[in-house]
Design a protein that fits this description.
Length: 96
């Protein structure tokens, strides 16, 4: 059975919507089907950065961010080369 393109859409699990982060680094966790060949994240509409796959999820280690509001978007690439985008995830960083 073929995976439908809509099924390749990534889901940012952490951080949660409107979460406040208080640490100086954070690991973003994204869920996506096994058939996904690549997954990237973009923070604040910046460049796409590759994530690593491990233990059934995709991970991105984020650091060097400033305090304030931020937005993360994830995208997946399937075997057909098409990219699918996640819903944007808004969060706040409150570090000193």
């Amino acid at each position: 059975m073929k995976t439908e393109i809509a099924d390749l859409r990534p889901d940012i699990e952490y951080p949660k919507q409107d979460e406040t982060i208080v640490s100086s680094d954070y690991t973003v966790r994204v869920a996506a089907p096994e058939s996904v060949e690549a997954l990237d994240v973009s923070i604040d509409q910046g460049p796409w950065q590759p994530c690593r796959r491990d233990t059934g999820f995709w991970w991105f280690d984020w650091s060097g961010y400033g305090s304030g509001e931020h937005e993360i978007i994830a995208r997946t690439r399937g075997h057909n080369g098409r990219w699918r985008m996640s819903a944007p995830r808004e969060l706040t960083v409150a570090n000193s």
